[in-house]
Amino acid sequence: MPPLASPPPKSSPRSGRPRPELIFGDLWPYDPAPETADPKLKPRYDLFIDGKFVPARGGKYFDTINPATEKKLAEVALAGPADVDAAYQAARRAADGVWGRMAGRERAKYLFRIARLLQDRAREFAVAETLNGGKPIKESRDFDVPMAAAHFFYHAGWADKLEYVAPGRRVAPLGVVGQVIPWNFPLLMLAWKIAPALAMGNTVVLKPAETTPITALKLAEIFQDAGLPPGVVNLVTGAGATGAAVMAHPIAAKVAFTGSTEVGKIIMRSLAGTDKKMTMELGGKAANIIFDDAPINQAVEGVVNGIFFNQGHVCCAGSRLLVHEPVAEAVIAKLKQRLRVLRVGDPLDKNTDVGAINSREQLNKIRHLVDVGVKEGAELYQAPCPLPARGFFFRPTLLTGVTQSHRVAREEIFGPVLSILTFRTVDEAVEKANNTAFGLSAGVWTDKGSRILKMSTELKAGVVWANTFNKFDPASPFGGYKESGFGREGGRQGILDYAKLV
Ligand code: NAI
Ligand code: MG
Fold it and tell me: Which residue segment(s) compose the domain that 112 sits in?
């Protein structure tokens, strides 16, 4: 950003209030603009089993907090094995008795209804998502909630066209599926999991992440309002032990997991030898690759969007930048300028670019890995922005001089941290980008169409974006190579992963 012609005003032009604490670098101060919609939270949430909210048999609850303030939002029931079993029994009855036998065009009506009810309550859901997860309201309002609704709409459109899922073959539901999801896109991951499963005629037992259960439980209210038959979707809340029980239950014909590669491997080991179908969406270490002929400003904006918005809590985040040597210095200088004007803070403020880290545990992991990066010789640049006194926040961070052997180039940090490497030739870019255990996504920035085609063929990544990043559509399948997992979500391929070919 070029220097401003005149210094930013020391007080708000509208209110006249002095706001010296907001003035740093060359960033203009804004008045706070908090989103005010009522998230309609209940003080306590029970499990959602067989169409009803029921307390856990063990009678235990755990707190769920707002990571931006560390304040308790609600308490949530802790499901044990008996609750998970009750959820599966309900799902089995619903699959056999109603949902699996219902005509696809009838199932479609429920999915459309869920999508529309979610749209009606979009603001309320966006605020709830931001309060519980820490992501900026502009993300939850403009991306998470509309995309979740879009997934229900899209899959409603499939429900009466299932004969086209596998042309020439007939498809049937698998039965009951068990699903465990993470905290980075609580509502959207739930939609990715539930919508295709239901469209295909399966019923579901799902566990949200322990830090972000609220929007799932609010969606259960919508399932009730939509008249979804009892047992079609069951939600059990809890941590890893509850998740393990969901994955291991004998009724589950398929399990679908999104989360860390570490837990994905534990689940796969524990299910080896069973006949359960499985899909896994695990970690990533995506490279954004900028060539010297790329539109540099656009590329820098794409890189910033790819790693800093949403606090880097994105499995397909562009957490490595590979930049062509002739433009490396210019790109890094522009990135530093851009970091200076990122707004970090209150996630409910509509101006906020970077919100709260989801949990103290995650914040500690990010801090640790950045320390390791510096110890291994990387050079650190952090946005000079003020951070709120409470809550879990981390400054947008660049690590330059990173080499391929550095842990920050190899391990998923899952925070607003960009590791920067350089390259000289196209082949070197491909080799470095592919030199990772993961393979979820990649980004290519160049003016040359032929180079985009070459890169997208040679990069071992489930998604390759060209001159853009983090673009999603329910019609476009998403999933990984190597340790990023297997199976696809979205599109025809995604629904096929919930079908039996008969
Ligand atoms: P995690 O993989 O432990 O948690 C994800 C989900 O799995 C949660 O619902 C959790 O309760 C559940 N879970 C935990 N242990 C389980 C088990 N043994 N069996 C079944 N379910 C289990 O991820 P965590 O600990 O929250 O984050 C650690 C790292 O994982 C992050 O720093 C990040 O690098 C990565 N991660 C990747 C995500 C992705 O979308 N690929 C999402 C979240 C985290
Ligand atoms: Mg974990």
Answer: 44-281+482-501
